[in-house]
Design brief:
This protein has about 170 residues and is an alpha/beta fold. The protein has helices at about 1-10, 20-30, 65-75, 95-115, 115-130, 135-140; strands at about 15-20, 35, 50-55, 75-85, 145-155, 160-165. The chain folds into two domains: about 1-90 and about 130-165, Rossmann fold (3-Layer(aba) Sandwich); about 90-130. The protein is globular and about 45 Å long.
């Protein structure tokens, strides 16, 4: 996401943040100019630092979602935008097939090919435990973020949610 934003908005000061140094090194090797190692639950930036904060497939991994959303709110400028791309519980009838794929087929294939079955089981749990869109919107509102729009993508398996700091 950082590289896409950096390339799409060359005049913007785009910063990639992660707590994992090897992932940041990989991002740098791919061309990301600015990276910061840090924890999303305690962002290493001053209040009102950013016009826009984006997060792709990460909110479901936060140990404390309200704390992470509070930090995002803190670093956003007044009327700043938060854009979230995250997995979403699939609609019926996809739910049955998605759950079978996610909980059984994908971990089995991952274990068979790469001995990474446990990683994919974690992925399945984190996706299935993520709040439904209406519950997520409530959490975002509780954090002081007003919903601008939400868009379902990939047959309802992924959702883009865009909010503005109240």
């Amino acid at each position: 996401m950082t590289l896409l934003l950096q390339n799409g908005l060359p005049e913007a000061d785009v910063i990639g943040l992660d707590f994992c140094a090897p992932l940041l090194a990989r991002a740098k090797a791919r061309g990301v100019r600015k990276t910061v190692e840090g924890d999303a639950l305690n962002l290493p930036f001053p209040q009102h630092s950013f016009d826009l904060v984006t997060l792709a497939f990460g909110l479901r991994n936060f140990a404390d979602r309200p704390k992470g959303l509070s930090e995002i709110y803190r670093v956003l400028q007044p009327s700043g935008v938060f854009a979230l791309l995250e997995f979403s519980p699939p609609p019926f009838p996809w739910k049955f097939f998605w759950n079978f794929y996610l909980f059984y087929f994908m971990p089995w294939i991952a274990q068979l090919l790469s001995r990474q079955g446990d990683s994919f089981r974690y992925l399945a749990r984190s996706i299935s435990q993520f709040p439904a869109p209406s519950d997520l919107c409530h959490e975002l509102h509780q954090a002081g973020l007003k919903l601008l729009f939400t868009r379902s993508m990939s047959l309802g398996l992924v959702r883009l949610t865009v909010t503005r700091k109240i």
